[in-house]
């Protein structure tokens, strides 16, 4: 894969030009961009998965470099500047402390002091955040204990492995993107899991390429420097992980976020969901490959019949695409690209992107996962955004080989024009910088895409520690 690096001047121009905006045609809805299969059809896709899964190499790709301290932001705010909002959350945290798995990682002495009210609330919180025992102020989210199962306390790295093995078997490979400084702690955690359960699949760790980091600019468009006079550089978003994804030598890659993991007692639906979505991907690829083979052997009408059936079942392409009036070479180009199947949950106000039909510069309308930052605040566009019914939980199955079995170069299917301009406060100054096209946004802009409605109970992200009190994170 050829990684494109942006020079200082290129980034400066992008920041000056502002955030590129997409033109929404309309949101995808059930039977209009999003498919929803009945139980019988779902069982057929699960059967398809079972019939070919042993012949396919499957990898999980799980971005896991995020900081766990963000989960406790309201506690930091409570300690530094208490107000009604963070005080209320802090009280809920303390009142439900025994419902959190990490409570049982605290030293017995601290727990006894808490139970006998011999430790102040602020001191107790400071111990959780800053003492080396837990040290949540300096831990990746994947190392924070999420769940207690009997006598075992598990973190997301461990539980993603347990769930993934139940999806794809012991031979599946797990690819986690991490910060190198935490690697030894993560490895120790995974070793503990192997000792407890005997589960020891292949684990790969990768890092986001620091060469893709972005220059930060002031409001005046000049390079930004920190208090020590050092030039400020910022990671360029999860779009920089496209290179990491492309390095995986696999047939099928399953993508999910590190914090979207359920208690082991509540994980069956999520496990079946990934099998179901993978079965759909395999079914779609089989038809795409068959259609390409027919087109290559001059059986155009038979190929078009397969594509029509494919479209009716999976709503792969927009109605405005007129295959009858396209050249055979153009149809092959349309089909011959990576394919992804993306689970979509009913929108219940979650942050993040959603599924839309988007108007492209070439006049083609295609399905995309769009973030709010990519949508114009123009009234018409804003109203279209408000009509969205579904949300992207990042449950994505990727087919990255072509009909010959060769791996696609994923960089060829990314849209470099769909970057983001991010504005942040850093050390008291406002900065702007470029984030690369999002991994499942612009980086997959030119993929074949299927959106599938999935149950909301498969989506249990932990953005704040209080989310661990929700049903999906509790023992039966």
Cα Rg: 24 Å
Kindly estimate the percentage of residues that lie in beta strands according to DSSP.
15-25%
* Fraction of residues in helix: 25-40%
Count the strands? 19
Determine the oligomeric state from the structure: single chain
Count of individual domains? 2
Number of helices: 13
Structural class: alpha/beta
CA-CA gap between termini = 46 Å
Mean of the pLDDT scores? 94
Apparent shape = globular
Largest sheet: 10 strands, mixed
The low-confidence parts are none
Kindly describe this structure.
- It is a single chain.
- The protein has 476 residues and is of the alpha/beta class.
- The protein folds into two domains: 291 residues, no CATH class; 70 residues, no CATH class.
- It is built from 13 helices and 19 strands.
- Strands 2, 3, 4, 7, 8, 11, 12, 15, 16 and 19 form a ten-stranded mixed β-sheet that branches. A three-stranded antiparallel β-sheet has the order 1-13-14.
List the helices and strands and how they pair.
Blueprint (H helix, E strand, L loop, with lengths): L7 H10 L5 E5 L1 E2 L2 E3 L3 H14 L5 E6 L9 H8 L3 H12 L12 H8 L5 H10 L16 E3 L2 E3 L1 H13 L4 E5 L5 H15 L4 E5 L7 E2 L17 E2 L7 H5 L5 E5 L11 H29 L3 H15 L13 H8 L3 E8 L7 E6 L5 E6 L8 H8 L3 E2 L3 E5 L20 E7 L2 E7 L12 E6 L23
Key words describing this protein structure:
alpha/beta, ten-stranded mixed beta sheet, 13 helices, 18% strand, globular
Give me a quick take on this structure.
Helix content is 33%, strand content 18%.
